[in-house]
Specification:
This protein has a single domain, classed as Immunoglobulin-like (Sandwich), CATH 2.60.40. The protein is 11% helix and 39% strand. It is built from 2 helices and 11 strands. The chain has helices at 3-13, 94-97, and strands at residues 19-23, 30-32, 46-48, 51-53, 62-67, 70-76, 79-82, 90-91, 104-106, 116-123, 126-133. It is globular, with a radius of gyration of 15 Å. The two termini are 22 Å apart. It is found in: Membrane.
Length: 134
């Protein structure tokens, strides 16, 4: 077991939400998530914060959010697609994409919403991945 897995397990044990960024190839930006706790009581809304650094428009990028292997939300070429199970629950702010804000809002969260969420950004054959746990 590598060090990052040990740290992740320890943080999960302590109830801390883990956010990790990986860059699959060289780009002029990276995905950034704040380190710290993100939590909500059942019925509340929660924001999974992700943004591009430096501030870069994401309007022409393909953005996909998944929970484990389950598709949640996608933005591509001005079109939004949402998993029917998350139709009125998951979205990101299209206006904020211009500023590189890729944060996903989940409305009315329940215990069943806990899990690993991953934001994937595709641009020019490159893939950037950033994940978090709620």
């Amino acid at each position: 077991q590598d060090l990052s897995q040990k740290i992740k397990q320890e943080m999960l044990h302590r109830g801390i939400h883990v956010m990790v960024a990986h860059l699959a190839c060289t780009q002029d930006f990276s995905l950034v998530t704040p380190i710290g706790t993100v939590s909500a009581d059942p019925g509340e809304d929660i924001i999974l914060p992700v943004h591009l650094s430096p501030e870069t428009s994401a309007v022409f990028m393909k953005i996909r959010w998944v929970k484990g292997a389950e598709f949640i939300y996608q933005y591509m070429n001005g079109q939004e697609k949402t998993n029917s199970d998350y139709e009125n629950q998951a979205n990101l702010s299209i206006q904020e994409l211009e500023r590189g804000n890729l944060s996903l809002t989940l409305r009315n969260v329940q215990q069943t919403d806990s899990g690993d969420y991953t934001c994937k950004v595709f641009q020019e054959g490159c893939l950037c991945v950033c994940g978090c746990y709620i």
